[in-house]
């Protein structure tokens, strides 16, 4: 067996559990009638000998603990101290066992010193199952709002750490008060617990994780404000609009003149769209050099939805240098042209949106996405996308396993469409083209293209998921294409290595599939894609989600459209689905894996949680797709941050912490202070070997 396989999952051997949650008797080593140390040590030595038979060196790892243990650590260590002392004393009588406190690092060091050749395993253990129909693939998507909050928090922590390193230690007690990155660092670290970001904690615990993150944001925002003040030379109050996802920002809504500061944590310059709720109808925007930013657009906010009272939104394109910020002035003008209203382009047989990179076509009857055209490279792909839901198994009758926070178990393999057609509205301005889809009172989406944007943005809003019918629901976004991929699709591992997945297949053992849907779900941290020999369709995610490629060839979903014109390969049949991507879950039963309550998030009003998220869809050739999805995925993980000032803002209108941008295949993973005068700098190559002709080449950089 490999060094990573343990005989008792991660629990202690039988009879050797001494937590306050355990029932095993404590070790008694006195001379009285309750003495049991000899029997305990004998049991321990027997367990060690049995375990050692399966290991290749004379070092074995024995875990001592389990879930929720060590709340009262004294009980454990008092008994372990006795066990170690008495077990090692047996060496005087010929025992070959030496017990010691250790760590995984020390254990692996000894395996390395053994100078053996170990089996090489290149696949992972996903998807995990502890029995037929019991796949632990639900937690890939459980608590999507918290998953999104954790991703945002991780990115903002990088910004906080960078600015603390760039501006120096004085930012911890600057003009806006005491700030500290350690509060958010600790909260993000705690959120990495396997029952935190996974979404398998109870509701009140999830609330506490979110509270800790919010406290970390508060402290880091003070530090960021102090740093921008020191670097840029301003004492104007700086404001963070934390509710922009629901179109709320009091400063932009009430102030006729303000400043927008865009900070970019990446090692390359970025262009970034600014979208702020406002009450005026005409605005002028100036760039860091004082030149007018053109174009500036406004749209009616009711098209997008939100909780705020502002009637419209201000749109303009900002930019910022590597590891730095740019400042933009915004001034409300007198009465101007009315806001751009949603409209259909006159005389067109079907709705469409486009920029210089992509043209996206929609079905005029159903409102669904129909086709994506790559204008730069001259090819197109039929792509259908819509929302569906799986009816969650309740665990009744002949199907005892219910869907829950851990386990995904639909009661049928075919999902149910949220709606067969969507009500649509089209918006076209100089800065953005959007198609708004409304599938139901609880499911809507905006498909968006901006100038210069090589991807289609999908902004989805789902919830509150209705459960008055007594049915738990698992909501998916599904893409359908004619790409023939023989059951293969690809997901990332923690945003880095891309792993090939094959439906109903495991590389290192023979699989007997009991769940055709849940048994093919995999974690999608930042991307999932399918490809044939020529074309690749990639979907980037803004949070960890569950995803798969369930079907190869479902003609019934595309026959009414047939093959659209302009496809250079002349495909005439539907061969493959990409998806689904699971975006939201609301369940009414517990899955009996330790949570003890259904995954039924109430939201602020008790009606259920509303979640908004983003997917980026890339259509490219298979040979060059990585050149796009690698930097764009990183841009979603560590995205720029927007800060507002009520006055003119920093005197220094533009700043970069780098003398020059890094080569495009390098990512600046960490810049953070480490004690007096020391900074931790970590660089990461973005590309895997062989996935990009240019990007995968080694890079030399002069520090």
Give a description of the structure:
- Belongs to the glycosyl hydrolase 38 family.
- Its cofactor is Zn(2+).
- The protein is α+β, with helices and mostly antiparallel strands.
- It folds into three domains: 1-121, Glycoside hydrolase 38, N terminal domain (7-stranded beta/alpha barrel), CATH 3.20.110; 144-336 and 640-665, Sandwich (Immunoglobulin-like); 388-429 and 460-565 and 580-634, Golgi alpha-mannosidase II, domain 4 (Beta-galactosidase, Chain A, domain 5).
- The chain contains eight helices and 31 strands.
- It has helices at residues 37-52, 73-89, 104-113, 144-167, 181-191, 203-232, 250-254, 625-637; strands spanning 173-174, 177-178, 238-239, 257-264, 270-278, 283-286, 297-300, 312-320, 324-332, 352-354, 358-362, 369-374, 379-391, 416-417, 423-428, 433-440, 443-449, 456-462, 473-481, 488-493, 497-502, 522-524, 527-531, 535-541, 545-547, 576-586, 611-621, 641-645, 654-656, 666-673, 679-685.
- Strands 10, 11, 12, 13, 14, 19, 22, 25 and 26 form a nine-stranded antiparallel beta sheet that branches.
- The longest helix is centred in the first third of the chain and has 30 residues, at 203-232.
- The radius of gyration is 28 Å and the shape is globular.
């Amino acid at each position: 067996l490999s060094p990573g396989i343990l005989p008792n999952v991660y629990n202690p051997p039988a009879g050797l559990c001494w937590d306050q949650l355990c029932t095993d008797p404590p070790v008694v080593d006195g001379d009285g009638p309750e003495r049991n140390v000899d029997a305990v040590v004998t049991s321990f030595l027997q367990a060690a000998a049995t375990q050692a038979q399966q290991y290749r060196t004379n070092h074995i790892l024995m875990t001592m603990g389990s879930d929720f243990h060590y709340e009262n650590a004294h009980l454990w260590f008092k008994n372990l101290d006795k066990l170690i002392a008495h077990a090692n004393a047996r060496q005087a009588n010929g025992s070959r066992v030496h017990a010691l406190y250790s760590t995984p690092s020390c254990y692996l060091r000894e395996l390395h010193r053994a100078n053996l050749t170990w089996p090489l395993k290149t696949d992972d253990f996903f998807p995990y199952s502890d029995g037929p129909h019991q796949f632990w693939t639900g937690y890939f998507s459980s608590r999507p709002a918290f998953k999104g909050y954790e991703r945002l928090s991780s990115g903002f922590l990088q910004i906080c750490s960078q600015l603390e390193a760039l501006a120096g230690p004085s930012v911890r007690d600057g003009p806006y008060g005491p700030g500290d990155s350690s509060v958010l660092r600790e909260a993000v670290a705690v959120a990495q617990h396997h029952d935190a970001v996974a979404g398998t904690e109870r509701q009140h615990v999830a609330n506490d994780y979110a509270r800790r993150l919010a406290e970390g944001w508060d402290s880091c925002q003070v530090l960021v404000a102090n740093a921008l003040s020191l670097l840029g030379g301003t004492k104007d109050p700086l404001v963070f609009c934390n509710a922009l996802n629901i179109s709320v920002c009091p400063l932009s809504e009430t102030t006729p003149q303000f400043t927008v500061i865009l900070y970019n944590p990446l090692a390359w310059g970025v262009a970034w769209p600014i979208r702020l709720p406002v009450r005026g109808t005409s605005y002028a925007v100036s760039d860091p050099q004082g030149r007018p930013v053109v174009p500036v657009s406004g749209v009616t906010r009711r098209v997008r939805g939100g909780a705020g009272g502002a009637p419209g939104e201000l749109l303009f394109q900002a930019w910022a240098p590597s590891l730095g910020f740019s400042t933009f002035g915004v001034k409300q003008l007198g009465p101007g042209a009315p806001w751009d209203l949603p409209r259909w382009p006159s005389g067109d047989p079907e709705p469409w949106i486009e920029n210089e990179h992509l043209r996206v076509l929609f079905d005029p009857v159903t409102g669904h996405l129909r086709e994506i055209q790559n204008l730069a490279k001259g090819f197109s792909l039929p792509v259908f996308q819509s929302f569906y839901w799986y009816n969650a198994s309740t665990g009744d009758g002949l199907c005892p396993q219910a869907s829950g926070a851990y386990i995904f178990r639909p009661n049928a393999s075919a999902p149910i469409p949220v709606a067969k057609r969507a009500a649509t509205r089209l918006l076209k301005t100089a800065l953005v083209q959007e198609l708004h889809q409304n599938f139901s009172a609880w499911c809507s989406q905006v498909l968006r293209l901006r100038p210069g944007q090589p991807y289609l943005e999908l902004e989805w809003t789902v919830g509150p998921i209705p459960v008055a019918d007594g049915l738990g629901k698992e909501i998916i976004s599904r893409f359908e294409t004619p790409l023939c991929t023989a059951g293969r699709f690809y997901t990332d591992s923690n945003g880095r290595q891309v792993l090939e997945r094959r439906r109903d297949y495991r590389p290192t053992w023979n699989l007997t599939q009991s769940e055709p849907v849940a048994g093919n779900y995999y974690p999608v941290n930042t991307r999932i894609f399918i490809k044939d020999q020529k074309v690749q369709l990639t979907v980037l995610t803004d949070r960890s989600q569950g995803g798969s490629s369930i079907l190869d060839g479902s003609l019934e979903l595309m026959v009414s459209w047939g093959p659209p014109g302009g496809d250079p390969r002349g495909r005439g049949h539907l061969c493959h689905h990409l998806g689904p991507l699971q975006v939201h879950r609301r369940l009414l039963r517990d899955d009996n894996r330790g949570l003890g309550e259904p995954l039924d998030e109430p939201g602020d009003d008790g009606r259920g949680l509303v979640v908004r998220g983003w997917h980026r869809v890339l259509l490219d050739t298979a040979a060059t797709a990585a050149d796009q999805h690698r930097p764009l995925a990183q841009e979603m993980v560590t995205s720029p941050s927007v800060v507002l000032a009520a006055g003119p803002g920093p005197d220094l209108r533009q700043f970069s912490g780098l003398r020059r941008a890094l080569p495009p295949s390098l990512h600046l993973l960490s810049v953070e202070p480490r004690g007096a005068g020391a900074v931790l700098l970590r660089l990461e190559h973005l590309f895997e070997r062989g996935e990009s002709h240019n990007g995968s080449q080694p890079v030399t950089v002069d520090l």
